Amino acid sequence: MIDIRNIGYSYPGSRKEVFTNFSLNIKGNSIYGLLGKNGTGKSTLLYLISGMLRLKYGKIEIDGEDAGRRNPDILRELFFVPEEFDLPSMTLDAYVRLNSPFYPHFDRKVLNRCLLDFELPLNLNLKELSMGQKKKVYMSFALAANTRMLLMDEPTNGMDIPSKSQFRKVVASNMSENRTVIISTHQVHDVEQLLDHIIMLDRSRILLNASVQDICERYSFECRMPGENSDDVIYAEPSLQGNNVIARRNSEKEDTMINLELLFNAATKNLLK
Ligand SMILES: Nc1ncnc2c1ncn2[C@@H]1O[C@H](COP(=O)(O)OP(=O)(O)OP(=O)(O)O)[C@@H](O)[C@H]1O
After folding, report:
1. Contact 148 CB / ligand 1 (< 6 Å)
2. pLDDT 10s digits, 177-209
3. Strand, coil or helix: 61
């Protein structure tokens, strides 16, 4: 469990707080989507959870341990894939030999399987990779590390279209019951079918914090023709076929697929009460 309590944070030299008295509880064992407009603090929050940035005040606890202390027992169970990173100039084998001992549940078979799913060779040299390939290799290593917590910042940025569905497959097939994955992203269509829980942020305000199941029980996502009944509509956007709408759902209505973009736009307009 990740317990964020009343935190404050501003970057060194900046007087503007990214977070002011912000609290959030992440129960875990699911795939969480962390969504928000540019500059709301999604990346900052992931860096704070992983203890790479220091809080001004408040506390972040991971399973009861202070994240800021970067206790090795917690770090062995937490892997953070930032949006941008460098990999050293060495072979993947050498990288694995050097870094895998830190992760007690590291599994080379998982790494090989993920690389194959990403259509990458197993014997590669990290210095010869494109940005998208680097991302796939690092993500494969992250999944193979088998940590209980996996944080990913904009994981599909820089990936081509086939890689995005490979990414969904790779993450979904490596999910286990006691694993918590937090994905911060703007590419909502890339992760829509993957998420179990949605958190939408607007700086220190939480616009939405709900499981996909709860959202689908409360709302239905439909395309309606102009002039069709709109009594139950909470939010509508015109589309080529008519209107994409979020409507209140009653028990007689069928379950619909969540439309994250529509949900996000409704949440930012404070329409999800
Ligand atoms: N190194 C830094 N120094 C000063 N301010 C920063 C720094 N990095 C980020 N910020 C500021 O902190 C705020 C939150 O940034 P952050 O990158 O966490 O947002 P984000 O939600 O991840 O944005 P995006 O969706 O654009 O990636 C922004 O206002 C940004 O300007």
Report:
1. no
2. 899 999 999 888 889 889 999 999 998 899 999
3. strand
Residue 153's identity, in one-letter code, is D
Residues 147 and 182: beta-carbon distance below 8 Å:
no
**What residues have CB less than 8 Å from 1, skipping those under 6 apart?**
25, 26, 27, 28, 61, 62, 63
Sign of CA dihedral 244, 245, 246, 250: negative
Domain limits of the chain? 2-203, 214-268
pTM of the entire structure? Answer: 0.94
Q: Whose CA is nearest to atom 11 of ligand 1?
A: 39
End-to-end CA distance of the chain: 26
User: What are the backbone dihedrals phi and psi of residue 134, each rounded to the nearest 5 degrees, phi first?
Assistant: -55, -45
Task: Quote the CA–CA distance of 216 and 209 in Å, as a whole number.
Answer: 13
- How many CB atoms sit inside 10 A of residue 61's CB? 15
Q: Which two tokens stand for residue 2?
A: 């990740």
ipTM of the complex: 0.98
Select 2-203's CATH number: 3.40.50.150, 3.90.1150.200, 3.40.50.300, 1.10.10.10.
Answer: 3.40.50.300
Asked whether 187 lines ligand 1 (CB < 6 A), one says no
Among 10, 11, 185, say which to mutate for ligand 1: greatest number of ligand atoms within 8 Å of CB.
Answer: 11
Question: 38: CA distance to ligand 1 center in Å?
Answer: 8
